[in-house]
Fold:
Amino acid sequence: MRRAVVIDRDGTISEEVGYINHPSRFRVFPYAAAAIKHLNEAGWLAIVVTNQAGVARGYFSEDMIQTVHAEMTKELEIGGAKLDAVYYCAHHPSVGEPPYRFDCDCRKPKPGLIARAARDFNIDLGASWMVGDRYSDVELARNAGVQSMFVLSGYGRGEWEHQRANWIEQPDLVAEDLREAVQAIVAK
Ligand SMILES: [Mg+2]
Ligand SMILES: [Zn+2]
Structure:
């Protein structure tokens, strides 16, 4: 079985700018490639999981997600980094039209995307991590049975300073950003 670092996209790998309805809005953080390369070299799987309910909401088509992910993959490859897989949920339980209006099992913090990755890659979930900038990523980690790393990039700092008092779950570790998160995980 293999260990994985499962990584949120918006606010963790790339700048949080709201819905990415065009590739021109997508900006990978300057440290993201080096961080993911570090995972590659240390033998960890690097897997992205992201909610993209803008599809269900009718803001953009599913093709836009593919286009943005091709751009992300290309930019990371330029920096010497490889993602093992990218999984997304384009659903919303109560907005839009079928098939995207759907009470799925993959919309974070439900664990469907990580469960799918675990089957595809034979992942040891208990030895793996979820890294993200929202409390829902901490909930996702608990639901999926992986350890949680909260990052202060994206929405992270604001959620940490203003909402943490209401959190039922606490993250296992907190890091400034994906770079620090990966350093901490690889060093453990
Ligand atoms: Mg995020
Ligand atoms: Zn879904």
Notes: The radius of gyration is 15 Å. The longest strand covers residues 45-51. The mean pLDDT is 97.
